[in-house]
Structures are given as structure tokens and as C-alpha cells.
Amino acid sequence: MTGSGITMPLDRSPGFGVYIHWPFCAAKCPYCDFNSHVRHQPVDQERFAAAFEAELATMRERTGPREVTSIFLGGGTPSLMKPETVARVLDAVAKNWTVPDGIEVTLEANPSSVEAERFRGYRAAGVNRVSLGVQALNDKDLRFLGRLHNVDEALHAIGLAREIFPRLSFDLIYARPGQTPEAWAAELEQAIGHAADHLSLYQLTIEEGTPFHALHAAKKFAIPDNDHAADLYALTQEITTAHGLPAYEISNHARPGAESRHNLTYWRYGEYVGVGPGAHGRFVENGRRTVTIAERMPETWANLVEAKGHGVTGGEILTRSEEADEFLLMGLRLAEGIDLSRYEAFSGRGLSSARLSVLQGEGLVAPIGNARLRATPAGMIVLDAVVADLAR
Q1: Helix/strand/coil percent split, the chain, to 5
Q2: Closest CA to 113 of 157, 66, 49, 145
Q3: Angle 45-63/298-308 helices, nearest 10 degrees?
Q4: Which one, out of 8, 79, 151, 245, has a CA that is 20 to 30 A from the CA of 362?
Q5: Is 271's pLDDT higher than 80?
Q6: Measured in Å, how far apart are the chain's first and last C-alpha atoms?
Q7: Mean pLDDT, to the nearest integer, of 165-193?
Q8: Distance (Å, whole) CA 237 – CA 262
Q9: Which residues are CB-contacts of 228 (< 8 A; sequence separation ≥ 6)?
């Protein structure tokens, strides 16, 4: 599968995405709670490529014919995949569904696993967008975050990606221990100077089950309190907007037209197939939105696929009420907000005018004309509470 550029749809269609999960990493970051695994022996990429092909074929049987609007290879560290493995997976997607020329095909990469030849191989395979896990432009904080690269390697990877791929995004984590607004502002300005068209900017959170959770509980380090974190968030919005990279979602910033098509499918509550260890999918099957959850352990997943054609071990069929709640939770993360008529179609009722009135009075939500509703910047900071109030 090959493609030259990316065609971004102008409408707000939710789309149909395909997510491929490569679960292997060179090292486990202490803040990460994603399904990622370190193997000290070479991964049998031939085996996993064949398993991806088999599970994609099974998913095609369940979804029927569809037109794919985006493909995302996430992880783990997909840039540890051989270009030949990526090509096989992308070819398998195109074999099972219609894949128009120019759709967004994203691969996540870590700067420590970047080689020019490998990047050119991914480009030849059909990848046209790379998302780099930079996380910090400060060597001390990179070490704290457990990253295997330094700032020079990160900047080299960014330059290489800009040279080879039409689209580039990279991630930074802020609200790090001891980080002042002045230090974050300087780092963000530097990042924007290197960014092409998209940045993902996440506040450091302490996730249960991670090494950081235990260290934080033992008071080995402290992160900014809620007020300080809110100030850093506001500063982030101010700086990115001033540079033409406004937030289109709570943590994601892009030049207009350069938004991540695949992530928009999630936030617009579209459909997507999830393939690979620990992958989740959500698609309409027999008229109902179905959730699929795959086995998390990579080798166990591969055994299951080889035995029965897929590694799905969990899932459910959502009720209309559950769909409506998820639609609210995802859609209100977006600056464009939600289509109120679509919420009514899911839930069978409109949002409570009394609750809307209270939330508007508190400056947490705002209408967009008569058809849409969005969370305000103040509402974004307490979005879970806003959604919980609206969904009652």
C-alpha cells in the first residue's frame, strides 16, 4: 500500500479507522500504563505480521465492507517494526476494506529508535504521518521520564521526520516536578519552532500500577497541584493559539486542516477496528455498537489468533444510554463540541435544559448556534464533572 499525501475531509464525518497495536518497547517508561512489553530476545515479527493479517481478516468478516478513513499504528513502539512488517500490515488492511488514496496513515515512533533508512522504508510502505514520543526538550527531565533519547536525538528525529513524511506530530509532557511557568513557556516556544503542523501536549498524571504511582505515593517526587497545573494548561492554550496551533481537543493542537483524522474518529464517536494485543475496537455490528477487547499478553494473543483467527477475549454490546454517555465524554473534548441532534439520536432524549442553564451560568459550557454545544476553556479543566452532570 502506498500513498503520496493526505486528503483531509472538510466535513465532520466520524469516519471508520483501523488501529494496529504493536506492544513491544525497548524499555518501559515509569509513567506509562499502556499495554507495552519489553522482550530481551528478538521479537518474531514474521509471526506477529501473520497474526495481524489473520485478525484483520476476522474483523472484516464482522464489519462487512467499509471505507477506511485512517490507519494508526500505535504501541508500544511501532518504530521497532521492520518496514517490511509495516508494509504487510498495511497491505492486509487494503485487502480487507476499501482504502482510498491519500488517507492518513500514522505510525508512532520514539526518537531513540529512529534511523533514516527505516523511516524511508515506512514511507515507501505507505505511512504518511509520524507521531514522535519526544516528551521533553530537557535532558534532565527526559532521564526522569525514563526516556532512552536525549534532546539532540529528539531534534534529529524531528528533522528527519519533517524531511521524509508529509505530516508530523510530536508529544510533550508538562506539569513535571518543579516545572515553572517560565520554563514550560520557553520549552513550548522551542517545540513550536520545530513543529510542523501538530503537537500533543499532555499533563503528567500518576497512573495506578505504574512505577511512578509507587514513587509518588512514597513522596519521592511531587507534581504541581491542581491550581498550578491549571495555570500551566492556560499558558499552553495562550502560547499555542498565538502561534497558530490552537487546541482542537483538550491536549491536541494543530494548524487548521492538520488535525489527526484518526483521533478525530475517536472523539467524534466514529467506528474503529482494533487489532493486536490489548487493542480495543468499537464498531456497529448487526445494527448495534459493539466493543471488542483483545488479550493483552502478546504471545498469548498470538496463540489465540493462530488457534481461532482472533485474540478477542472481551467486549460487550452497548446500550443506547451507554452510547450517549460515551458520545458526550468524547465529543465535549473537542473545540467543535457535539451535535445535539446526534446526542438525541443515541439517547432518545435531549440534554436537560435546567442542567444546561446551570452549567452555562457557571461558564462551563456554551452553545454554538442552535445545533451544537461545546465545553468552554474553564469547562475543559473539569470536563469529567461537566459530563457527569449532563449525563444524569
Answers
A1: 45, 20, 35
A2: 157
A3: 60
A4: 245
A5: yes
A6: 46
A7: 96
A8: 22
A9: 175
CA distance 375 to 131: 27
| Cell numbers standing for residue 248 | 482542537
Instruction: Count Cα neighbours of 286 within 13 Å in the Cβ-side half-sphere.
Output: 5
Residue 11's pLDDT is 56
- Reply yes or no on whether the pLDDT at 209 is more than 90: no
pLDDT value at 13 more than 90: no
CA angle 76, 266, 249 (to 5 degrees): 95
Burial track 19-56 (b if 16+ CB lie within 10 A, e otherwise): bbbbbbbeeebebbeebbbeeeeebebeebbbbbbbbb
The pLDDT > 70 percentage for the chain reads: 97
Q: How far apart are CA 20 and CA 56, in angstroms?
A: 9
Dump the DSSP string for 34-97.
SS-EE-SS---HHHHHHHHHHHHHHHHHHH-S-B--EEEEEES-GGGS-HHHHHHHHHHHHHHS
Tens digits of per-residue pLDDT, 370-392? 899 999 999 999 999 999 999 87
Cell digits of residue 208: 495506578
> Within its chain, how far is the Cα of 44 from the centroid?
26
In this predicted structure, what is the pLDDT of residue 1? 59
Under 8 Å between Cβ of 1 and 94: yes
Q: Is the dihedral of CA 363, 365, 371, 372 positive or negative?
A: positive
Cis bond upstream, residue 363 (ω within 30): no
14-to-9, 42, 236 alpha-carbon distances in Å: 10, 38, 27
DSSP one-letter code for 345 = H
Query: Looking at residue 380, what is its pLDDT?
Result: 93
Q: How many residues does the chain have?
A: 392
* Of 256, 290, 258, the residue nearest 274 (C-alpha): 290
